[in-house]
Amino acid sequence: MRRAKIHEKASYLADAVFSASDGIVTTFAIVAGSAGASLSTSVVLILGFANLFADGFSMAAGNYLGAKSEIEFEKAKGSRTDGEGSPLVHGGITFAAFNIAGLIPLTPFLFLVSSPFVSSAFLVGAALFLVGVMRSYYTKRSIFKSGTEMLLVGGFAALAAFLTGEVLKKAVG
Hints:
Blueprint lengths: L7 H29 L4 H37 L9 H16 L4 H4 L5 H24 L3 H30 L1
């Protein structure tokens, strides 16, 4: 089933919100899983940056190809494709938002703070809430509700990653 056409700026907003959230959550999942498994800071950074660039590029390429496929599908049906947005812009927004936001969980590990995991968790919570707040600016939803929603969804994913690291550490350690 084809998704309803939405305003071009809204589709770019969707790309940015989804990608920023995913960048924060998936990178923090690496951090949380590594912390749960008691891995060293250097391993956290290696895994984190490998995830950041590989997943960011993968998401950008997938979004580019998806947007391009949608436009080609509409053209094949003989429909107008005005306002669909550039697939390249969709991919670029996805890559930039994912990688910029995905750096947040790694920052405490780069600066070797005394408790990098705890610092990362606080930064991630604040960043997720802020993405929700920024989203509310465009959606006209409550700042608190939108920020809390992003925080809870991302927090659940982080908790799952941490617990997975704990379980696997016990299983293979």
